[in-house]
Design a protein that fits this description.
Two copies of one chain form a homodimer. Chain A is built from seven helices and three strands, in the order ααβααββααα. Chain A is mainly alpha-helical. The first copy, chain A, has a three-stranded antiparallel β-sheet. The longest helix of chain A has 23 residues. The termini of chain A are far apart. The first copy, chain A, binds a DNA duplex (30 and 30 nucleotides) through helix 1, helix 2, helix 3 and helix 4.
DNA sequence: ATATATTATATCGTGCACGATATAGTTGTG
DNA sequence: CACAACTATATCGTGCACGATATAATATAT
């Protein structure tokens, strides 16, 4: 007998009974898996997420990237400056509305996309999981995200 | 025509077709939701995760917390020092094996558990989602996590 | 036209995450 | 016993995340 825990842990507070923890852990592990592939290309995982938005939407404002990634400018501004220093994007104030910073892809930024194209499938091969599970997971998260957003926005 | 994107984005690189992004976003949003409840108690979300492990397993070694949370000592050591400074835990070298740091809960650390008990259900109320979806999500992540761990451990 | 509010971005401070490396203690082997 | 291999924890450096706050530009309302 360890002298301490004859007391029972309420089930709400057991790590295994919580949804939040596996989500947190899985997210970190996936980030690490991506990092293995992204590191050689000089990208971090959040930078990769931002580049995906830019490959879809550039030229666009910081605000667009913010809305899409759900990251604020206190995260994005320094991240975008690093992408600029790496020569992947350019940042210029919009001459019409001087509040807006417009993000453009450079040639290097555009061509980086080709090198990233193989990454998702390479990771799928590495993580052996039922394809069905992954599809279902995506659908569930797709439904959960709006609920989470709503939960955050109410006061 | 915007002059740029007549080119087609390969579907693997569209944010919406990826599993990784919603996982990353959902994890961050849940962290923020928890933070709203945890802040008043003086805890961060990762600290709360660690405390949950300790409520289950203390007294135990740092290694135990590491195995359970999948966090390394470069994250845990400073986090545990902060918990110690807040008077929630104590850290002492094991006299039998001096490499091991044993973590004990203080009275304050133990009683904090009662204050955290209501948090998970409070958040469930705030995030309006099908109970079924959440259960399914947990099961899917439970299957995915071992696959991710395996993917990370192979070279 | 002039306050006033709103918007877009930036800055600051704190605390994760994590790769890389270090260090001290322990165990195993010849 | 010596010495290599292993283990548990710590340290360092970089880059997120994010709450709080600041600032400048634009829009709105008197």
């Amino acid at each position: 007998m360890s002298g301490v825990a004859t007391e029972v842990i309420p089930p709400q507070l057991q790590l295994d009974s919580q949804l939040c923890f596996p989500l947190y852990a899985a997210s970190r592990m996936i980030t690490r898996l991506y990092q293995d592939k992204l590191g050689p290309l000089g990208l971090t995982y959040p930078q990769y997420i931002v580049m995906m938005v830019l490959w879809e939407s550039a030229p666009c404002a910081v605000k667009t990237v913010s809305a899409r990634t759900l990251l604020n400018t206190n995260t994005l501004t320094p991240l975008l400056k690093r992408l600029e220093q790496q020569g992947l994007i350019s940042r210029q104030r919009d001459s019409v509305d001087e509040r807006v910073v417009v993000l453009h892809l450079t040639d290097a930024g555009r061509s980086l996309r080709d090198e990233c194209e193989c990454i998702p499938s390479a990771l799928l091969n590495k993580v052996v999981a039922e394809e069905d599970d992954l599809l279902q997971l995506k659908q569930l998260l797709g439904r959960l995200l709006p609920a989470l957003k709503a939960g955050l926005e109410e006061d």
